[in-house]
């Protein structure tokens, strides 16, 4: 059994970036990371553009200008202004080449034939020059940039319809247990509804990992070997829930050994989630999480999350941690470090009742995990506690 710190370091050291390129439509690339630099095919803006509603001027010494026309957003006409002439113009409209400043409409008096401005203005005022954001041929976004909604909008504004990104991993979730049935089926005596796969699928979707398949296997050694061999060969990451303990019908550990999956650690000194396995076979990572739902999800956030970030070549791998003031009292049983389900709000954290590893009711309203290290036996109200912020 190893420490949490040792386990986290082993996950970091053995989860390598997935250096594979894939092409995605730009509007569907949110959450992906650019595989190569993206160069702008156009100037942005592509023409001199009005920054506001007002009047485009060909400057002269007087404050009075002759009004000769109008330019709206989307217009392609190019009126030619002489000194002392102006056109009405609107935000986003192309600025005539012969105009050299724009006065906002609030500082202009108009009689329909001419306008009078309040004061002299400087050359180029309120005109967005062509290429102000980015020039044609320049790098619009660098390799390694994580694409956000703003980045997607920016690239679309440049007319870029597809991007080269790092491929996200193919992930398999495998659930084990003869007692498990699908929600919607009749719940007979001795059976329970299987929730871990959908819970983990939802966690992956929330992190924008979508290439996920779900598999079920009975508590049978040969079927477990067959199923695990298949998913390990076909995926970059395999997440197994249940069957990793040492009971007579826990076959996952034996099957992984049969398949020559390299064991990097098994069992972590922590609560919940002690019977946690992490290993690899070639480039495929394998996590075997406890079957208890709250333990499985805690292990996902503390360990699997790190592997996912590393696979995607992201610099920040762990979930953020903050020191928060506890508004609860807590007495720890045993000497194992613990992750406690909690609610964090504006620097304060409430440790919730119902910390049993089989219970999700408390986890359902949590947005944080309070970490209680080995050398701490109790938490008192107003103590500062190490708090992991969950991505929910």
UniProtKB/TrEMBL annotation:
Gene3D superfamilies xref list: MoaB/Mog-like domain, MoeA, C-terminal, domain IV, Molybdopterin biosynthesis moea protein, domain 2, Molybdopterin biosynthesis moea protein, domain 3
InterPro entries: MoaB/Mog-like_dom_sf (IPR036425), MoaB/Mog_dom (IPR001453), MoCF_biosynth_CS (IPR008284), MoeA-like (IPR038987), MoeA_C_domain_IV (IPR005111), MoeA_C_domain_IV_sf (IPR036688), MoeA_linker/N (IPR005110), MoeA_linker/N_sf (IPR036135)
Pathways per UniProt: Cofactor biosynthesis; molybdopterin biosynthesis
TM regions (residue ranges): 285-308
Presence of the UniProt keyword Membrane in the record: yes
Uppermost EC category: transferase
Entry annotated with the keyword Membrane: yes
Pfam families according to UniProt: MoCF_biosynth, MoeA_C, MoeA_N
Substrates-to-products reaction catalysed: adenylyl-molybdopterin + molybdate = Mo-molybdopterin + AMP + H(+)
Record keywords: Magnesium, Membrane, Metal-binding, Molybdenum, Molybdenum cofactor biosynthesis, Transferase, Transmembrane, Transmembrane helix
PROSITE patterns linked: MOCF_BIOSYNTHESIS_2
Family: Belongs to the MoeA family.
Role this protein plays: Catalyzes the insertion of molybdate into adenylated molybdopterin with the concomitant release of AMP.
UniProt xrefs under PANTHER family: GEPHYRIN (PTHR10192:SF5), MOLYBDOPTERIN BIOSYNTHESIS PROTEIN (PTHR10192)
Protein's name according to its UniProt entry: Molybdopterin molybdenumtransferase
């Amino acid at each position: 059994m190893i420490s949490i710190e040792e386990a986290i370091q082993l996950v970091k050291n053995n989860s390598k970036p997935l250096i594979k390129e894939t092409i995605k439509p730009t509007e569907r690339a949110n959450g992906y990371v650019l595989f190569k630099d993206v160069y702008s095919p156009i100037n942005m803006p592509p023409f001199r553009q009005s920054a506001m509603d007002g009047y485009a001027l060909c400057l002269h010494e007087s404050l009075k200008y002759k009004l000769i026309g109008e330019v709206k957003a989307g217009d392609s006409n190019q009126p030619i202004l002489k000194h002392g002439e102006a056109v009405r113009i609107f935000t986003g409209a192309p600025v005539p080449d012969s105009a050299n400043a724009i006065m906002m409409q609030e500082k202009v008096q108009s009689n329909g034939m001419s306008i009078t401005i309040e004061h002299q203005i400087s050359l180029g005022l309120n005109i967005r020059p062509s290429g102000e954001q980015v020039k044609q041929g320049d790098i619009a976004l660098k390799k390694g940039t994580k694409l956000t909604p703003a980045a997607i909008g920016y690239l679309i504004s440049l007319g870029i319809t597809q991007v080269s990104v790092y491929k996200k991993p193919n992930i398999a979730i495998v659930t084990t247990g003869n007692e498990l049935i699908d929600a919607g089926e009749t719940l007979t005596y001795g059976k329970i509804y299987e929730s871990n796969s959908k819970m983990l699928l939802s966690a992956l979707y929330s992190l924008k990992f979508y290439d996920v398949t779900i598999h079920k296997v009975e508590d049978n050694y040969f079927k477990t070997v067959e199923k695990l061999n298949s998913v390990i060969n076909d995926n970059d990451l395999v997440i197994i829930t249940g069957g990793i303990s040492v009971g007579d019908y826990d076959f996952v550990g034996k099957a992984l050994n049969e398949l020559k999956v390299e064991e990097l650690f098994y069992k972590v000194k922590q609560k919940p989630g002690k019977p946690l396995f992490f290993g690899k076979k070639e480039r495929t990572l394998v996590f075997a999480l406890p079957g208890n739902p709250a333990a499985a999800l805690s292990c996902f956030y503390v360990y699997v999350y790190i592997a996912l970030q590393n696979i995607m070549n992201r610099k920040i791998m762990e979930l953020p941690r903050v020191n928060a003031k506890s508004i609860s009292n807590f007495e720890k049983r045993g000497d194992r470090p613990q992750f406690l389900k909690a609610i964090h709000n504006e620097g304060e954290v409430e440790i919730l009742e119902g910390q049993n590893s089989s219970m999700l009711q408390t986890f359902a309203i949590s947005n944080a995990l309070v970490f209680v290290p080995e050398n701490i036996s109790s938490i008192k109200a107003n103590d500062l506690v190490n708090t992991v912020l969950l991505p929910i």
